[in-house]
Amino acid sequence: MMGNMGKMMKQVQKMQADMAKLQEELVNRTVETSSGGGMIKVVANGKFEILSIEINPEAVDPEDVEMLQDMVMAAVNEALRQAQEMVTREMSKITGGINIPGLF
Q1: pTM here?
Q2: What is the pLDDT of residue 13?
Q3: Quick one: which of 71, 31, 23, 34 has its CA closest to 51?
Q4: What does the DSSP assignment read for 34-78?
C-alpha cells in the first residue's frame, strides 16, 4: 500500500514539474489567425495574450468602421480560441486527458 502511495506521489510531482515547464513554454508558443480574407491577422500566445494585430490598409474604410471592428473582433476571438485549444492539447499530454479544473 505504501509503495503505491510513494509511486503515486512521484507521478504527481513529475506532473507538477511538467506543468510548470509547460507554463513557461506557452509564453513562446503562438497561434496566428486571420479574418476578412486575410485583411486582419492576429497572433496570440499560450498565455492568452494578443502579441500582434496586422490590419491591411485596404481594410480601412472610413465609411465602414463597423466592418473593420467586426473583422478585428473575429480574428482576436479566433486567436484566443485556438490558443485555448493549444493549451488544452498540451496539458492533456501531461495529465493523460484528466481534466483538472483551475489549472489554467
Answers
A1: 0.76
A2: 85
A3: 31
A4: EETTTTEEEEEETTS-EEEEEE-GGG--TT-HHHHHHHHHHHHHH
Task: Looking at the structure, give the CATH architecture of the domain made up of residues 2-95.
Answer: 2-Layer Sandwich (3.30)
Handedness of CA 4, 6, 9, 14 (dihedral sign): negative
Grid cell 483538472 in the structure block, residue: 100
Average pLDDT over the chain, rounded to whole? 88
Give me the mean pLDDT over the 77-95 stretch: 91
User: 84: exposed, middle or buried (C-beta count within 10 Å: 0-12, 13-18, 19+)?
Assistant: middle
Alpha-carbon distance 80 to 4, whole Å? Answer: 40
Q: Considering all CA atoms of the chain, what is the largest pairwise distance in Å, rounded to the nearest integer? A: 73
* Residue pLDDT, tens place only, 38-56: 999 999 999 999 999 999 9
